[in-house]
Amino acid sequence: VLENQDLQDSIKPQKVEFHSLNFNTTLHWQPGWAREARDALYFVQYKVYGQSTWQNKDECWGISSHVCDLTHETSDIQEPYYSRVRAALAGVYSSWSLSCRFTPWRETVIGPPMVTVAHSNKSITVKLQAPRSPYKRKRGSTIPMTNYYDLLYQVFIINNLLDEQHRVLVYEGKEKVIEIQDLRPGVSYCIVAKMYMPMLDHSSAYSSRQCTVL
Description:
Pfam families: Interfer-bind, Tissue_fac. Keywords: Disulfide bond, Receptor, Repeat, Secreted, Signal. Belongs to the type II cytokine receptor family. The chain is mainly beta. The protein has two domains: about 110 residues, Immunoglobulins (Immunoglobulin-like), CATH 2.60.40; about 100 residues, Immunoglobulin-like (Sandwich). The strands form five sheets. Strands 3, 4, 6, 7 and 8 form a five-stranded antiparallel sheet that branches. A hairpin with a 7-residue loop joins strand 13 and strand 14. The longest helix has 10 residues. The N and C termini lie far apart (about 75 Å).
């Protein structure tokens, strides 16, 4: 019995955490500290905070992976959720490891916008597209993150003559197409953008650079 108890403790999953980007939500954990724990299988359950019964996540029942997709299970984005994971090895089950409470609307990370640029001889036109959630409208298109939050686009220009790291904010607002004027012909400019949420004072990461020479 003692050996079983030791095995139970040594295969128990560690660091059970929700990771979420644009409401694409996965549960991650690390294997127990025993060397043989790498051969363990894992079982995932979840529930809304306040519910008494745990739900099994069928696709993550007896898996060898250390990640489980709970996007569908956490789609009520204002609700707080919990998840828990246990391990099994050689017929022995660990106790459950519990995640922290996770509320998608508060805790998902908002990704950067998509940026495309076109230029004329003295101006750059920037097209912006907000990141999209995994959730769909009835007609089948995915719902942009701007439906869930009051988000602004922030657009920055980098003049490669001056300094690679020097980003100048040239626009903040909700327009999806903007024009940056009075630029110098023959100069290489790069555009980056991010999403900004004034209410929580959160910013996304920067988009990838889109560069052009006028």
